[in-house]
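Run log, item B.
One chain of 212 residues. Sequence copied directly from the ordering sheet:
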Amino acid sequence: MGSSIAVAVLADDPITEEGAIVRLASYEEIAPRSLDCRTADVLLVLANEVTGTMLTRVERVGRECARNGRRLPVVLVANEFPEHSMLRAIGLGLVSLLHRRNSSFDAVVRAVVAAAPGRAKPGDGVQQRLISQIHALRDNALVPHGLNVAGLVAREVEVLGLLADGLNTKEVAEKIGRSERTVKSVIHDLVARHNLRNRTHAVAFALRTGVL
C-alpha cells in the first residue's frame, strides 16, 4: 500500500483520544498521533455529539494544520450530528461521516485511507455522495463569487457574528471600520435577499446553517 497515512486525532476527551491512538496504531495503513498535524494527511474527529464548540476546535486545528492553503480532509465519527452542523462541517473539510455506535475501527480506518490525498475517495454511501456534491457546489459555484453554502458574503458573516456577540449596529460599525449606515445596509440587504424578518432572524439563520 505504500507509506502509512499520518492521522491527527481529535476527540471529546483525553481518554478517548489516547485509547483511539493506541487502537489505531495496530493498523499498518495509518500512523495516528495526538494533533501533531505538521505532517498529517487526515484529521480524524471522534465525538459523542457534534457541537459548536467541537466544530470550533476542528476549525482551529484545521487552520494550524493547513498546508499550501488547503485544509486537511476530515473524517468525523459521532453519535449525534445535528443537521444544522452539516454545512459548517463541510466547510471545515468534512469528507466522510460515520455513526460512532455502528462503526468498527476497521470501518474508521477504511474511511481514513479513502480520505487521504491521492487515495480513492469514500465509496458509494449516500452521505459521502451528498458531501461530495456540496463540496463541488461550494467550490465551483459559491467560492468564486465570495459566497458560502448559506449564500452569505464574508462581510455579512462578519456583521452577523458581531451581532451574535451582542454588539449593536454602532458598535459593529466601529469594530469593522465602517459607518453605521453601511452596517444597516448590509443587514437590510441580506434580510431582504433571504426573506428574513429582522436582524435577530438573520443571526438565527446564520447559526442554523452553520455559518456562525
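Observations after the first pass:
- DSSP finds nine helices and five strands in the chain.
- The chain has two domains: 5-145, 154-208.
Flagged for discussion on Thursday.
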